[in-house]
Amino acid sequence: MNKTQALALGVLTLWPVVYVMLFMSLMAYMVIFSTSGSMPPFLGLIFVLHLSTMLEVFVLLVFYIVHLFKTTVIPVEKKALWGVVLFLGNVLAMPVYWYLYVWSPPAEET
User: Fold this and answer.
1) Spatial separation of the C-alpha atoms in residues 16 and 18, rounded to whole Å
2) Over the stretch 72-109, which tens digit does the pLDDT of each residue have?
């Protein structure tokens, strides 16, 4: 994977983290400053963004799990641990995995 592809993957990997912060901020804003009690007009956009972000997390999880078991950079004894960490802590673990093994991978073992 070249640096441009790795950078694009990094941006996609960071989006769920950014989205969660934006979503929680928007919800807090709506709770604190809501005066009408009605649904906001942009709720459809939030729904679409939420569903597309969930789909993106699933696709990224599949990509990282496949990458994990195809690469020779990660020692065999660490692959199962990384698999569990990626599966259970996906949104938080994927940026760490991306940085360690996609953006700046160690030299491959022979």
Assistant:
1) 5
2) 989 999 999 999 999 999 999 999 999 999 998 776 65
- Angle at Cα 21 formed by Cα 33 and Cα 92, nearest 5°? 155
Cβ neighbours around 73 below 10 Å, total = 14
Q: What residues have CB less than 8 Å from 86, skipping those under 6 apart?
A: 61, 64, 65, 68, 93, 94, 97
Q: What is the DSSP letter of 42?
A: T
Q: Whole-angstrom Cα distance, residue 15 to residue 76?
A: 29
Alpha helices in 2-97 (DSSP H): 3-33, 43-70, 76-88, 90-97
Overall size of the chain counted in residues: 110
Query: What does pTM read for this prediction?
Result: 0.85
Distance CA 82, CA 73 (A): 13
Secondary structure (3-state) at 109: coil
Q: To 5 degrees, how large is the angle CA 92–CA 96–CA 101?
A: 145
